[in-house]
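user: can you give me the structure for this one chain? tokens are fine.
assistant: on it. calling the predictor now.
[tool input]
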Amino acid sequence: MIERRTLAALAVGCGLAVANNYYAQPLLAEMGRYFGVPDRRMGLVAMLSQVGYAVGMLLLVPLGDRLERRSYVLIMLGAVTVALLGVAAAPSFAWLAAASLAVGVTTIAPQLLIPFAAHLAAPSERGKVVGTVMSGLLIGILAARTVSGVVGEYLGWRAMYALAAAVMVLLGLVLRVLLPKSEPSASGLSYAALLMSIGGLLRDEPVLRQSCLLGAASFGAFSAFWATLSFHLAGPPFHYPSGVVGLFGLVGIAGALAASAAGRLADRGSPRRTIGVGLACVLLAYAVLYGAGQTLWGLVAGVVLLDLGVQAAHISNQSRIYAVRPEARSRMNTAYMVAYFVGGAAGSYGGAWGWSVAGWGGVCLVGAAMTALGLLAFVATARARHRVERAEEWRYGCGCSDRGA
């Protein structure tokens, strides 16, 4: 059983650390005005942050199976502190883009803490524990937008990143006291062997491949919305400042409830069903956003549905992959989260492209298209699994005729 204070530290640590990747979203319009950059190019900043996150997970997260986890988390918190200060000091758009990429690469502490939580939890409570930690992570994502919007409006976007750097220093001091040390599960593997083994996991584990595809589609749809919301709310008919834009993050707190509920459902053995429901919820969200996204109530309803659906699918995907290879959780998480944030980067850029071409309707069509692809993949993998199960029954003589005899 995992101790309550340890679980709380993991959840809070995930939330505060992951927030670094989302402070920019309500501030993109303000940053664009400061540097004289059009909206479409500012979408590049959001995309580079997601790409950097994927690169960091691919190259750095696998070391979580080889190194002592607590020490590694503290090292990465130090690295992201430096990157955040780089954003705060950016003298040009090119510097801002490069520093945003560095923030993404070094913001990997959450993807070390989540497998850490799964490692410390008993098998019977793993879904619940992962769901609790993910609730903290989701609250961090949503609160980051609110905090950055308010701080950006009153103190400017540079102050937000300086404050974030200070928070990372404080978080490191707290986690050093509250987190236990852990024994590496793959200490005998070289770094090259760790990276190469990820390909083997993808080849050998169909559950991992499915989760990668479904996660990429859902997070792409999620990112298309949030990467362009500040542009939508800054223009007609709303004309809201960044502080109000950030408040929309609070609307999605309902998604944190979905994280815990999805974790409990995963413990009961139905994560795949929850993934399908989550994707359907995301598609419904885009129908609402397309039809009523020019009204405040339509945006609020869409945000709630979007966050509920994405988080339900995400937690269920992670619960599935953590149950497959206990000794390789960091590497399984790496494969899944790289695909997840590649999808997010595609969604961020696709949303900005949709906005530049067709405004809010273009954003909604991009998000809906990514979700529809995910649902098609969900149905296709379900049919493929059913065919495999039928073939195995026939092969081993366990078909209907034998059971009925």
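assistant: here you go. Residues 80 and 106 are 5 Å apart (CA to CA). The longest helix spans residues 329-395.
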